[in-house]
UniProtKB/TrEMBL annotation:
InterPro entries: Methyltransf_25, SAM-dependent_MTases_sf
Domain Methyltransferase stretches: 54-163
Name of the molecule in the record: Class I SAM-dependent methyltransferase
Organism: Sphingomonas sabuli
A Pfam family assignment: Methyltransf_25
């Protein structure tokens, strides 16, 4: 873990600057609200609590880290990794400097949408954690930008490091999806199909919104030795009582 400077005093607030919140809520205020709601969800659905070891897959500039720290008084050992270098630089010089048990790692992984010059193939990424060292691992709005082989690899890596709960979000395509399309309630139509079978929304930005067949998702998790409990999101218009737009999967080692 890094060890920078003083800890922030009680009541100090870390805000993410506007240029870095474009993909994480739109404004600093919205990013904070979204993060706080997710931290609550992590506790309610995933059993997250203070003093647990956390791995944040695709941490961005620290939206979730700030929310978790605020909720649990910065008592967790947290590691977040991210493919966007500027996000990690901000998180290190602000969050880690104030709270040294919150660590941020840059992995220069390729993504056609968010890191097109990345030098590491997604299927070669090794998560920055030891085997079975993580109590709570999560990935929000990550698999919605990954295709089949990369998704399967990320699930396997999550299974490798997690001894407790792995919570992730997806756009799940199942037998109810055509009904939502017909009813006109779905946010996405996912009209395009990749050779590996995943669906995507935009022909000119293929990783901007990616949907996976439920059968494929079950295979990713099953092959990795994880359970697979689905909580429907609101994006299709048929997720009654949904807490978030994307579908949530809560998984644990079998």
């Amino acid at each position: 873990m890094w060890s920078f400077g003083r800890k922030r005093k009680a009541g100090d607030k870390i805000d993410i600057p506007q240029p870095l919140t474009i993909n994480h809520g739109g404004t600093p205020e919205e990013a904070r609200k979204i993060g706080a709601k997710w931290a609550e969800t992590f506790e309610l659905l995933g059993g997250l609590g203070p003093d647990q070891a956390i791995l944040d897959i695709g941490c961005g500039p620290g939206r979730m880290a700030i929310a978790i720290g605020d909720r649990f008084d910065w008592r967790n050992d947290y590691t977040g990794f991210e493919i966007v270098r500027d996000d990690v630089a901000f998180a290190r010089r602000t969050i880690s400097k104030a709270h040294p048990t919150f660590e941020f790692v840059h992995i220069d992984a390729y993504n056609v949408q968010y890191n097109p010059l990345g030098k590491v193939e997604p299927t070669a990424v090794r998560f920055p954690a030891d085997d079975r060292s993580i109590d709570f691992c999560f990935a929000t709005s990550i698999f919605t930008h990954l295709f089949a082989a990369d998704s399967a690899h990320y699930v396997r890596e999550a299974a490798r490091v997690t001894r407790g709960t792995f919570l992730s979000t997806w756009f799940v395509i199942d037998e109810g999806f055509p009904k939502a399309i017909e009813a006109g309630t779905s946010r996405f139509g996912f009209p395009h199909r990749d050779a590996d079978g995943v669906a995507y929304e935009h022909a000119d930005a293929i990783a901007a919104a990616v949907g996976h067949d439920w059968s494929a998702i079950q295979r990713y998790f099953g092959d990795a030795g994880l359970s697979c409990d689905l909580h429907r999101g609101a994006w299709r218009g048929d997720g009654k009582g949904a807490r978030h737009s994307q579908d949530i999967i809560v998984a644990r080692p079998r």
